[in-house]
Each structure stands twice: as structure tokens, then as C-alpha cells.
Amino acid sequence: MFKRYHKLVTIGLVLMDILLINSAFVLAYWVRYELQWFREVDEAYYAPFQRYIPFAVVLTILLLIIYWLGGVYHQRRGSSWFDEVYAILNGTATGIVFMVFIAYFYRPLAYSRLMFLYAGGFIVLLLSLGRLGKAWLWAHIRRKGIGVDRILIVGAGEIGRTLMRHIVAQPQLGYRVVGFVDDDPQRGSKDIGRFRALGGIPNLSGIIHEEQVDEVLITLPWTYHRKILSIVDQCERERVRARIVPDLFQLSLSRVHVDNIGGVPVIGLREPTIDVWQRAFKRSLDLTVALGGLVLLFPLFLLIGLAIKLDSPGPVLFSHTRVGRGGREFTIHKFRSMHQGAEKEKEELADLNEVRGPVFKMRNDPRLTRVGGLLRRWSLDELPQLYNVLRGEMSLVGPRPPTPAEVANYQEWHMKRLTVSPGMTGLWQVSGRSELPFDEMALLDIYYIENWSPALDAKILLRTVPKWLSGEGAY
């Protein structure tokens, strides 16, 4: 499906770039000759725009060629906006330098080299904004199922789950998993989040037709090499593309690092969890933000506390036992959003749980107070957790802190969530919050642990703000 739209997208990008490059050239002329920023133009050297039209045409053709050679129009799955902007910046700089030399040797006194520098800046700006608009439009189109490849995963072991969490965490890849098959009766019959269990591998042909599968991704262990070749042959007969995810010595792919020495591939191992120095960086950021937040938000804390007291009897804060890094228990603090005795009523409401898995969530929870409902909607009940962050029991970003009862019902692969400190916000919170089933929450949390970086933390924190303002998925 992705390849079907590749040519159309490329043609659209080229046409958009032609328009934006020439628009940037017009803006550069206006700034240089009409506004005369930074340096005034002597009347003797004033040049009408018509003289620059041949240069605009040459620059447009030149940049399109440079962009093409630089890979700007090579649509790759998962390429980020920053990757595209970097390629545009490099290509534009090369083209502008070339044009400055042409203008200098052609008629050095008749043309302003400063205008070409303006043009370069506007070109980078407009094309970058254009790519941002393209990314938004492409995401909107994919939400409607256009340009999305329908994927069937063969195998639901560690490699299969690794693939699932990458797809969940990176919707921009344009994959929609229709489900998975596995010969293990337990794996082949139990859904993992939104990913449906479709039975055993013998059902493959029927599933391909029923689900209109575009691609089959095989994640079986290397010891099943004969079965893997058989599945590939079967996919070829069904005219469906099959790709194999290598199970290198039955290691988790998160631990595999591929490099090369003079073109020879070299496979190494890496530790997927956050190391000591990374924890030190996160801790320093946590301390700074938590301390500043507690000081700045103290007046708001007083107002919320007063509202809770006036609304219903009971304490302002609700304290509860949660499980942190390494399985250590700690006491979490939140503004009370329910009436007293709400925890004892939880068992009576168990049948109304709206989240699959060990987590309890329900819309319109009757235990919520009037003020509590507002606090939940805007996530203001979570603010006292800044104290937990200050104490080192939590972090600003990380997996949701589970209760001991939830951990008792974890599957083995869920336990990886406990290898880092829990957070006030996290990848699953900005990807759907309570709308997601628990298995999908776990997939996103494990993806975060395996791919942590300061940039990822910053991205999650920035995405938290609009989610907080909209109240999306909060209940």
C-alpha cells in the first residue's frame, strides 16, 4: 500500500517545492530591494525582479536535482521531520553557494549576492513548514486507513512483541496489524492489546484473504528455519510480501546493535535499560522540575485543597501503595478525587472495568466527587506526585506506577516495566491514556525503556501539554 502512493507523494512534493522555492525567491527580492533589511540598496544598483527570473529558474532546477540526489524525495518509512529538514538544509546551502558564484562571475555588480542568502533562508523555512504540513496531512489520511499497510505477524514471542511495540509507538510508520498467528495454543488464542490472536499458523492462507493482508512479518525463532521457508513459499503463492525478522541467537532485538567494519556487518550486544549516567541525568532534571513545580504551584495546591474540603468530607490527599523500580513498594500521593471508602467499593464495580488486563478504569465512576471529576479531567489530582519525584520514588517520565495487586497479575513479559522508576507521564499517556488496553500500555512502556533518550523524554513532556489541556482519555 505504501509503494502504491509513493509516486503520487513524490510528484506532489516536487510540485510543492517548485512553488515554495519560487515564493521564497519573491520574498527574498521583497526583503532585499523593498524592505532593504540590514543594508540599503544604492539606486545605481537597483535591479527589477525581471532580471532575477532566469536565476530563479536555474535555482529551482538546481535545487530539485540536489534534493533528489540527497534523498529528499526518497520516501522512507519512519523518517522524521528533522531528517527531512536536515537534507533540505544541506541541499539548499549547496545550491545557494553555487548560485552566488554564478551571479558573481556573470555580472558581479548587477546582482545582489545578499539576496541569494535571503532566498536560501526563506527556502529552508518554507520547505520545512511544507514538510510539517505534509506530515500532518499524511497522518490524517492514514487515520482513515489510506496508505496503510495491513500486516500479519507470525509468532507472538519476544521478537513478535518487540515488533508490536515499535508499531504501536511509531504510528507514522503506516502499519496496521490485523493480528498475529502462533502455533502455541496459549499465545495463538490470547489478544495482546489491540492485536488480535487469529489462531495457529495453518490458518495463514485463509487469514491473508479474509483480512486483505498486504505483508506478512515472520518473527519465529531461528530453529524453525524450515517452517519459516515454508511460510515464505506460501506467501509467494498468495502474492503477498513476506519479510523475516531475524532472531539472532534467540536474543531480544533490543539488545542487538548492528554496525559495520569496512562494509562487513558486525553484530554486538547492548543493555536495553537505562544505565547509571542516564539515570543521573534524569534524576537531575527530575529534581529541578519537581522542586520548582512544588514552589510555583503551592498556591494552586491550597486552592485545590480548599475545594476538596468544601465539596466532601475526608482528607485532602489520598495515599496509596504502588510498586516502583525493582519491585520496591512506596506510597504515592494524589489529591483525593473520590468519596471516603471508595477503595472498599472497587470489588463491587469490578464487572464494569473498561480496560482489559489487571488495571481498573471506568468512565463515569460513581465514586468520584464533583471536584474529583474536574481534577481527573485535567489530571490535577496527580500534582502531589511531584513530592514522590523529589524523593526519588518516581520520575517525571516513565511507566505508570502499578499497584501490588496489578503486579501480582502480570505476565512475565510485563515485569520489564519495573526496571525503571515510574513516571508522572509516559509514552502510553500521550498515546491514548485510558483508551488503551493494558497490554498496549505495557508495549509502549517497554518501548520507552529500550529506546530512552533525553530527546524522547522532551518529546513526551511536550506532547503531555496538549493532552493535559484537552483532557483526552482521562477518566
* Spatial strand arrangement across the major sheet: 2-1-3-4
Nearest-integer average pLDDT: 82
How far apart the termini lie comes to 36 Å
Instruction: Count all strands and give the number.
Output: 10
Taking Cα atoms only, what radius of gyration do you get, to the nearest Å? 28 Å
Descriptive account of the structure:
With 475 residues, the protein is of the alpha/beta class. It has three domains: 2-143, no CATH class; 149-269, 3-Layer(aba) Sandwich (Rossmann fold); 276-470, no CATH class. It has helices spanning 2-35, 53-69, 81-106, 113-143, 158-169, 204-210, 225-237, 276-296, 298-311, 370-377, 385-391, 404-408, 438-450, 454-470; strands spanning 149-154, 175-181, 215-218, 241-244, 256-261, 264-269, 317-323, 329-335, 395-397, 423-425. The strands form four sheets. Strands 2-1-3-4 form a four-stranded parallel sheet, sandwiched between helices. The protein has a two-stranded antiparallel ribbon with strand order 5-6. A two-stranded antiparallel sheet has the order 7-8. Helix 2 crosses helix 3 (81-106). It is globular, with a radius of gyration of 28 Å. The relative contact order is 0.07. The mean pLDDT is 82.
Comma- or semicolon-separated keywords:
two-stranded antiparallel sheet; 14 helices; single chain; 10 strands; Rossmann fold; 47% helix; alpha/beta
Helix-strand layout with pairing:
Layout: H1 2-35, H2 53-69, H3 81-106, H4 113-143, E1 149-154, H5 158-169, E2 175-181, H6 204-210, E3 215-218, H7 225-237, E4 241-244, E5 256-261, E6 264-269, H8 276-296, H9 298-311, E7 317-323, E8 329-335, H10 370-377, H11 385-391, E9 395-397, H12 404-408, E10 423-425, H13 438-450, H14 454-470
Parallel strand pairs: 1-2, 1-3, 3-4, 9-10
Antiparallel strand pairs: 5-6, 7-8
